Amino acid sequence: MSSHDPIDPRDVDPLERKTTLDTDAQDGRKDSPSLADRFRTAPEDADLEDPEEDAWEGGYSGKAMIGSWLGAGFVSLLVILLMVRFDQLREGNRGKYILLCLAAGWIGLGLMAWYRKMNVRYHLTTQRFIHRSGILTRVSDRIEVIDIDDVTYYQGIVERMVGVGSIKVNSSDRTHPELWLRGIENVAEVADLLDDLRRKERRRRGLHIESI
Q1: Which CATH class is domain 56-210?
Q2: Would you state the pLDDT for residue 93?
Q3: Which end of the chain offers a freer environment for a tag, N or C, measured as fewer CB atoms within 10 Å?
Q4: How would DSSP label each residue in 50-81?
C-alpha cells in the first residue's frame, strides 16, 4: 500500500482509536475551563472592572442636638425668671445650688454632644459600608453593600429644620441585621446614596453571574 493512499478506518486498531479519542477529549477539557473555575475567577474580574471607590464619610452631627440645646435654654431662662420673681429662691444658698444645677446640666449636654460626635464614624464605598465605634478602644464592622435589604430615614420637626436625621439600615449581616445611624447631616441625600449603591451593586453582581 502506498503511503499516499487513504487509510481505511476499519484498518485502524480499536485500542489505538480509543486512545486517540481519549486524548482529544482531555485536550478539549483543558481548553475549556470548568464552571467552578469560572466562578472562582469571577470576583477577581469584577474587581478589575469596577474598583472600589469612596462614596461618603461622616459621623454624628452636633446639629442633631439643637432640640436639646433649645430645651435647656428654655428651662434655664424660666428658672432665672422665677428666681428674679420670687425672693425665696434666692435666700441663703438656694440661688447658688440652683445655678450650679443649671451649669451641671449645660456641661452634661456638652459632654453628651462630644461623646456622640467622637464615638462613631461611618465610611461608605461602592462595595462596603464600614462603621467604627469607640473612643479609647475602636471597633470596626463592615457590611457588604449587596447585603443591605432596606434603607429608611427619620426626621423630627426640629431635625427637618436643620437637615439632620437618623437612618435605619436593614441587612442580612449577622452582627448588625438592624443598624441605626443617628445624627446624620443631609440625611435624605445620604440615604438615597446608600440605596442607589445597594441597587447598582446588586445589578452589577447579577449581570456578571449571568455572563458566566
Answers
A1: mainly beta
A2: 85
A3: N
A4: S---EEEEEE--GGGGHHHHHHHHHHHHHHHH
